[in-house]
């Protein structure tokens, strides 16, 4: 049963309500990218290949039609650098025109495009140079941003340079450990932590410090190029918000733990036009570090604790770190589940926690659900986050009840207040 929202919180004019995807996860056959190479490498640790994904490279008009018809007014998608520049210095004019058409298509359907330049994947040639550890990485990314400016110039208001740089820095460490294990180093073990697309659990390793610095340089270099092309463009980046909760006596440990994994990236956004919050669950921190998910906790298909209040806590934390002059867009929030009633219940409570933060003065300009489609979740199609189901053989799209429910909220211009009673397995928002 779809929950009643009562009067709810009336959203401010211009508030974005929509959904998100990323190119590699929905387009299919991203053959010039480093992730494609990783997936298809003999003996790869990646369990499942992306293949055709949701074939959105060809079916994006249908995807946008559905989002518009459902009542949404925004769509976040990414430009694939590996398609735009498949070989160093070679720009595919066909790919540029493809993404320009996507921007125009979104605007024609009444969808505000929120466009990401880098969503985890890079051209294979870039990674072979050393990726973000290459001394040229910031300049190469800025050059790509100059090409992307042609696409954004079709009418984009919001652009994100890099998706979840904290996860990119963490993945660099994880991949380095994986390479060492493959070389027979028995002392190399690693966990990880992620509140976004890749299914990592809390771990003791840190994001690579060199990659962190390189990503911040690349973000600033690309931002400068984009601003020079269009001073009115609103530029930011998106962070995987971990919602670190200190157990009693662990406040200092939690602060030290959080800084290299999240806060350093938030601090780098203090001069940006906006910051993207991406929140799914929480991570509890004890005096000795991260704690496992409680054995009795309800969990998602990715093994994350079901904790919808993470969204409100993430936007409050982000606002404290970046300051009051940087508005927030929720660029990802959702749940990996095959139970669509649970998706509605989770999102109801998540939005209620967001409404509470907004009522307390946090400047939030939009909510973009992850994800628009059931898609490729970095090694597996099993975790279904989508508002719209996709048949893996025919690619037929079928909106779920959650899509119609969330679309109705977008049409009404309001989001739920804290529910009187939460469904089983979902906490009520305070």
In percent, how much strand structure appears in the residues? Answer: 15-25%
CATH fold description: TIM Barrel
Main-sheet strand order equals 2-3-4-5-6-8-11-12
Helix content: 25-40%
Q: What CATH architecture label applies?
A: Alpha-Beta Barrel
CATH class: Alpha Beta
**What is the terminal-to-terminal distance?**
22 Å
CATH superfamily: Glycosidases
Rounded mean pLDDT score = 92
User: Order of helices and strands, N to C?
Assistant: EEHHHEHHEHHEHHEEHEEEHEHEEEHE
**Count of separate DSSP helical elements:** 13
SS-derived structural category? alpha/beta
How would you characterize this protein structure?
- The chain has 430 residues and is of the alpha/beta class.
- The protein is built from 13 helices and 15 strands.
- A hairpin with a 6-residue loop joins strand 13 (388-390) and strand 14.
- The strands form 4 sheets. It has an 8-stranded parallel beta barrel, surrounded by 8 helices. A 3-stranded mixed beta sheet has the order 7-9-10, covered by helices on one side.
- The chain is globular, with a radius of gyration of 20 Å.
- The chain has one domain (9-413): Glycosidases (TIM Barrel, Alpha-Beta Barrel).
- The model is unreliable at 186-202 and 420-425 (pLDDT under 50).
- Helix 5 (93-108) packs across helix 7, helix 7 (137-152) packs parallel to helix 9 and helix 8 (165-182) crosses helix 10 (251-267).
- The protein starts with 8 loop residues before the first strand and ends in a 15-residue tail after the last strand.
- Residues 182-203 are annotated as: Disordered.
- It is an enzyme of class 3 (hydrolase).
């Amino acid at each position: 049963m779809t929950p009643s929202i009562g009067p709810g919180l009336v959203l401010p004019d211009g508030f974005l309500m929509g959904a998100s995807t990323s190119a590699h996860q929905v387009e299919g056959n991203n053959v010039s990218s480093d992730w494609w190479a990783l997936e298809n490498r003999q003996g790869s640790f990646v369990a499942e290949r992306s293949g055709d994904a949701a074939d959105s490279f060809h079916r994006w008009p249908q995807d946008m039609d559905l989002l518009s018809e459902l009542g949404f007014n925004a769509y976040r998608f990414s430009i694939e650098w590996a398609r735009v520049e498949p070989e160093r210095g070679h720009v595919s004019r066909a790919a540029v025109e493809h993404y320009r058409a996507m921007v125009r298509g979104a605007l024609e359907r009444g969808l505000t495009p929120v466009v990401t330049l880098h969503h985890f994947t890079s051209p294979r040639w870039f990674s072979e140079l050393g990726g973000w550890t290459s001394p040229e990485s910031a300049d190469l990314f800025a050059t790509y941003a100059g090409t992307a400016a042609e696409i954004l110039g079709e009418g984009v208001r919001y652009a994100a340079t890099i998706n979840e740089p904290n996860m990119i820095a963490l993945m660099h460490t994880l991949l380095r450990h994986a390479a060492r294990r493959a070389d027979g180093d028995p002392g190399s073990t690693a966990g990880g932590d992620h509140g976004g697309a890749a299914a990592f659990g809390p771990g003791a390793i840190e994001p690579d410090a060199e990659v962190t610095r390189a990503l911040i340089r690349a973000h600033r270099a690309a931002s400068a190029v984009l601003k020079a092309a269009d001073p009115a463009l609103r530029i930011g980046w998106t962070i995987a918000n971990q919602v670190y909760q200190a157990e009693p006596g662990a406040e200092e440990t939690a602060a030290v733990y959080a800084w290299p994994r999240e806060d350093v990236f938030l601090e780098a956004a203090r001069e940006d036009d906006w910051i993207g919050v991406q929140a799914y669950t929480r991570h509890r921190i004890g005096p000795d570090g991260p704690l496992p998910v409680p054995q009795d906790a309800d969990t998602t298909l990715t093994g994350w604790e079901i904790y919808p209040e993470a969204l409100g806590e993430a936007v409050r934390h982000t606002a404290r770190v970046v300051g009051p002059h940087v508005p927030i867009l929720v660029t990802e929030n959702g749940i990996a589940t095959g139970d669509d009633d649970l998706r509605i219940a989770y999102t109801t409570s998540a939005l209620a926690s967001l409404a509470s933060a907004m009522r307390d003065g946090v400047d939030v300009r939009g909510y973009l659900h992850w994800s628009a489609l059931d898609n490729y979740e970095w090694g597996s199609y099993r975790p279904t986050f989508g508002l719209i189901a996709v048949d893996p053989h025919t690619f037929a799209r079928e909106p779920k009840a959650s899509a119609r429910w969330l679309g109705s909220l977008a049409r009404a211009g309001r989001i739920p207040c804290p529910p009187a009673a939460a469904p089983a397995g979902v906490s009520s928002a305070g």
